[in-house]
TrEMBL record:
It is found in: Membrane. Signal peptide: none annotated. The lineage of its organism: Bacteria, Bacillati, Actinomycetota, Actinomycetes, Kitasatosporales. This is Large-conductance mechanosensitive channel. Keywords: Membrane, Transmembrane, Transmembrane helix. InterPro entries: MSC/AndL, MscL_channel. Its main location: membrane. GO terms for cellular component: membrane. It is a multi-pass membrane protein. The gene is mscL_1. It comes from Streptomyces smaragdinus. Pfam families: MscL. GO terms for molecular function: mechanosensitive monoatomic ion channel activity. The chain crosses the membrane at residues 73-95.
Length: 149
């Protein structure tokens, strides 16, 4: 039982995912600091005056619970975009390149699909002879990459 657990933990893809998560957390902290201490002050300054940020006060003046802070939303959106770009270019692209060198297609585009005439499922592989959902026999395909209407 312990040997199986050890083999599970030492699988290459599990190590890759764990390493990617650690790197993502480190980048997350860095990007969060960038948006909090660089982007937020710029957005707040654009509103002008002595405003607490880009937004509107919906209740009592000075009550943070009733302040609609659009600046924080813009900051979170910028954070998300930067974070996803970093993950893509720092983890996904090198991983795809590494897997391609090993002969494995990582994050490959799905192959051609067809629609089942009986249940109208649209996710059947082109070469399927039976439907995955209703198990009906599928007519032979007329050509590669075609999708019946």
């Amino acid at each position: 039982m312990l040997r199986g657990f050890k083999n599970f933990l030492m699988r290459g893809d599990l190590i890759t995912i764990a390493l990617g998560l650690v790197i993502a957390l480190a980048f997350s902290t860095l990007i969060k600091a960038f948006t909090d201490f660089v982007i937020n002050p710029i957005v707040s300054r654009l509103q002008g005056g002595k405003s607490a940020g880009l937004g509107w006060q919906l209740g009592d003046e000075g009550n943070k619970a009733t302040y609609l802070d659009i600046g924080q939303f813009v900051s979170a959106l910028i954070y998300f975009i930067i974070f996803m770009a970093v993950i893509y270019f720092a983890i996904v692209v090198p991983y795809k390149h590494y897997q391609a060198r090993r002969g494995v297609k990582a994050f490959a585009e799905p192959g051609p699909v067809k629609t089942c005439p009986a249940c109208l499922s649209e996710d059947l592989p082109e070469a399927a002879s039976r439907c995955l959902h209703c198990a009906t026999e599928q007519p032979p395909t007329t050509g590669v990459g075609t999708r019946p209407a």
